[in-house]
Amino acid sequence: MMDEIKNFRSSTPVITRQAENTARARLLQAMREPAPAPPRRRMPRLAWRLALAASLAAAVGTGVALTNDGGGQQAFTHVASVQELGERAARAAVIDPSKTVPSPGKWLYVKETIAPLREEPAPAVDRDKRTTLELWNSVDGKQTALDDGKGKLVVHETGPGITAADLGEAPVTPERMLERIRAAIAEAPVPPGDDKSEEQRIVESISQLMSGQSLEPEVRAALFRALPMIQGVSIKQDAVDAAGRHGIAFAYTGRWERFEIILNSKDYTYLGSYGETVATRTYSPPSGTREIKAGTPVVWTAHLESKIVDKPGERP
């Protein structure tokens, strides 16, 4: 088991604890029976390509946030730019009463659903299947605990990276957030064959921090304000997480992939992430050369619940 986890770690980002969680989630999906996918509208291939074209149109674009008006209908809230999205999300983070300042010795319980891999070692995920994962992350950012699939709770030491405590050191500004994350990325080993840009690594790291660590409101706000400062980040008007929930997203488009940080379009809380290839390419795993076509989903998650608890294994 431990050897397999180490092997999976080598193919995922190591910048934060949540990157390791993602790798372990890929391993555990083979141990558990996937839950049926929630009902959702399948987007035709043309619609995916039109959405991609829109995200490529400008680094700073216009967007429309979809919100529920309470009667089952969607209302439209104009978002003029990615900077405005960052500012709205930041202000909401500061006043969010549900955010709790972490205490030493506590753990963050996290429940997620993910689209599992179709077939190892190909990176494509299955749009039609879901796996639910429960994690317990120490608030100091040094340990992660999870069920090994056989009813046993296993605690792992996390690798090098950046934690909520690191980001909480003054000054807490968007510029300092980017500096600290960039420095951590520079120190982290890059898996063989991984040619993601620095900008994509930063965006993915912010997503991992938001989903897997207990961030102080000021830190979360600074991260939201930092996202529009990253070259290649724009607005995705209607993004969908792995639970079928619609929201608005920060979308980074690189040479090979697009990665989305999906937020609730009403209160701007973190919903999940989505990533797909934007160009066809080949890669060479040990089993031989394979081709990944443009439009292939490579990550799809939904953040369902998180709460501070006293110890790993304890649920809210």
Description of the structure:
By secondary structure, the protein is α+β, with helices and mostly antiparallel strands. The protein has 8 helices and 14 strands. It has helices at residues 2-9, 17-28, 45-56, 82-95, 164-167, 174-187, 198-212, 217-226; strands spanning 35-36, 63-68, 74-79, 107-114, 129-138, 143-147, 153-157, 233-240, 246-253, 257-263, 270-277, 281-283, 290-292, 297-309. Strands 1, 4, 5, 6, 7, 8, 9, 10, 11 and 14 form a 10-stranded antiparallel β-sheet that branches. It has a two-stranded antiparallel sheet with strand order 2-3. A two-stranded antiparallel sheet has the order 12-13. Helix 6 crosses helix 7. It is globular.
- Uncertain runs are 1-76
**Helix proportion:** 25-40%
Give a count of the beta strands, DSSP E runs of length 2 or more. Answer: 14
**Cα separation of the termini:** 28 Å
Q: How much is the radius of gyration in Å?
A: 18 Å
Bulk shape: globular
In terms of structural class, how would the helical and strand content be classed? Answer: alpha+beta
Number of helices: 8
Residue fraction in strands: 25-35%
The average pLDDT score comes to: 78
- Following the backbone from N to C, one meets helices and strands in this order, namely HHEHEEHEEEEHHHHEEEEEEE
Sheet with the most strands? 10 strands, antiparallel
